[in-house]
Structures are given as C-alpha cells and as structure tokens.
Amino acid sequence: MKLFRYVTEEDVIPGILIDGKPYSLEGFFEAFGEETGAYDLDEYFFEEEGIAVLEDYLEQYGTSELEPLDEDIQYASCVARPSKIICIGLNYADHAKETGAPIPQEPIIFFKATTALCGPNDDVVIPRNSVKTDWEVELAVVIGAECSYVTEEQAVDYIAGYAVMNDYSEREFQLERGGQWDKGKGCDTFGPLGPYLVTPDEVDDVDSLPMWLKVNGKTFQNSTTAQMIFKVPQVISYLSQFMTLLPGDVISTGTPPGVGLGFNPPIYLKPGDVVELGIEGLGEQRQVAVSWEDAN
User: Fold this and answer.
1) Which of 188, 195, 243, 249 has the highest CB neighbour number within 10 Å of its CB?
2) Where in this chain does the record put each Fumarylacetoacetase-like C-terminal domain (predicted)?
3) pLDDT, tens digit, for every residue of 260-282?
4) Is-contact 261 99, C-beta < 8 A?
C-alpha cells in the first residue's frame, strides 16, 4: 500500500493511492478510530495493527467505500506525531569522504526535532541567521511495532514502511557551534517526509533503490541505497540496543554524496531555490527555499 496524509481546510486526513489514483480514508478511520481510538497514521494506528485491518477492509470492499480525491493534493507528512526521528550520519562511504570524515565503524546516531517534520512539498525555511542551509535525500524507515534488543533477522518484522525524507542541515549550526549535530538538523521544516508511506510488500529490494536530488533543475545527488554502509536491518537492530523503538518512529538512514557541503567552494541554499528529490517507487518531493523573515 501507498498511504499518505492530505490537508483540508479543517484537518489532516489519511488517504491511499490505488492504481495511481488517490482516495480518502476518512470513512475507514472514522470507524477504525471509534473502535480503537486511532484516527490518523500515528503510533496508535500502527499499535492497533491498522495496516492489517486496512488490508482486510480493502480486500472486502475494494474502492467501493472510498471517496476519490482530486490529483491536486496538498500532502502532509505521511506519518503523524512520531515519538522520535532518529538519523544515521555518514552512512554512505562517498558522502563521508566528501565531508572529510572517516568511514564510521558503527552507525552514527543523531536526532531531528519532531517539530522539523513537514509535508513533502512544503517550503523549506532558511533559519534566521543561516548562511549554510544544505540538502540531503534519504531513505526513511517507519517502525510498525514496539521493539528493543532485536536481531537483524527480527528487525524486518518491525517495519511499517518506507518513505522519502530530505534531511535538511544547517552546516554552521551543525559543525561550527559546538556540541552535537542536532542544533543544525532540527530547525523547523528541516524534515519533509513523504509523500507516501510505502509498505514493504511494494518494495522489491530496499537495498537497490535509485535516489536523486536536484537544485534549480541541476542534479547534485544521484545514487542508490545499495551504497549504504549499514543496511536497514542492521540500523534497526543497532538502535534497538540503545532505546525502545515505538510504532510510528521514523529512522532516516543517511545520504549519498552530492550535498552542498561537499563542493569546493560549498554550495548552500538561498531564497527562491527549488529543491526536487525522489526515491524510485517511494515518490517525489519539491520544496522552495524561503527566508525566515518572509516565512514569519
């Protein structure tokens, strides 16, 4: 399944893409929520095995009970209110090399603030006093069930689905202001997620997904998930040794080479720049960079 969330005048509502056509899941969630308390693509939906329930619903009714939507959808983040957004740094060897960092021997972990989460086509706001806002196309993994201390073999059983994430980074805040990376990673709008949450059965090989990113029409990143140092099961298992992963948690698995920091001289975003990115089978995003002053 390809699930999404879309914005209306009153609310954000879950939907589903079937045979390339978008449908609202408002009616399904009204009934499912009344029974379980889960009204959105959030921790409670996954906790209540909502994906399996929705599969049974679609097998029984098909699209007959679903409201078709116009193609012109304003997408929200494909997951609502994750308890945490965990990111893996330098998980592509060529990216580590371009930033002058050594190849990690274990996954490098940092967190992105949940307030950074936004829709895949929302504007990216260049923070106040920022001159080094950068881009990073990444494969995100959404956790489907609570887990801790799982093995790599067990890890795949805890995946709800995959999505596209742009791990925006303010490099001065991240690297030149002391402390950890988080202050350069958690700015508002620095976590566009979606458009779709794609369930694992629709992904033939998560280890060979082409991924790309363009700025103003010029390709800067062009790689595949085959280049990841630590694969998805390794990452989930590793993280679960240090923290409990909850349903709806988002893990962003790292970026390939081609970020602005890696050029000489570096290239950073300025107001009016257009960033487009995508991962094969998971969808595409588009953000326009705006200044903090114009956004507020």
Assistant:
1) 195
2) 84-287
3) 999 999 999 999 999 999 999 99
4) yes
Beta-carbon-side half-sphere exposure of residue 126 (alpha carbons within 13 Å): 22
Residue carrying structure tokens 């005048």: 9
Residue 141, classed as helix, strand or coil, is strand
Q: Where are the domains of the chain?
A: 2-68, 85-295
Residue 251 β-bridge partners: 86, 141
The pairs formed by 266-273 with CB atoms below 8 angstroms and a separation of 24 or more are 266/132, 266/134, 266/171, 267/215, 267/220, 268/131, 268/132, 268/133, 268/134, 268/171, 269/124, 269/126, 269/133, 269/134, 269/135, 269/215, 270/126, 271/126, 273/215, 273/216
The residue with tokens 């903090």 is: 292
User: Three-state DSSP class for 226?
Assistant: helix
Q: How many CB atoms lie within 10 A of CB 105?
A: 7
Please report the pLDDT score of residue 172 as a whole number.
97
Residue type at 222 in one-letter notation: N
Q: Is the model's pLDDT at 251 over the cut of 90?
A: yes
Peptide bond into 256 cis (omega under 30): no
Instruction: Report the distance separating Cα 174 and Cα 182, nearest Å.
Output: 7
Q: Residue 205, Cβ neighbours under 10 Å: how many?
A: 10
Residue 91, both tokens = 């998980």
pTM: 0.96
**153-196 pLDDT, tens per residue?**
999 999 999 999 999 999 999 999 988 899 999 999 999 999 99
pLDDT tier at 94 (50, 70, 90 boundaries)?
A: confident
**Answer CATH for 85-295 from 3.40.50.720, 3.40.50.620, 3.30.420.10, 3.90.850.10:** 3.90.850.10
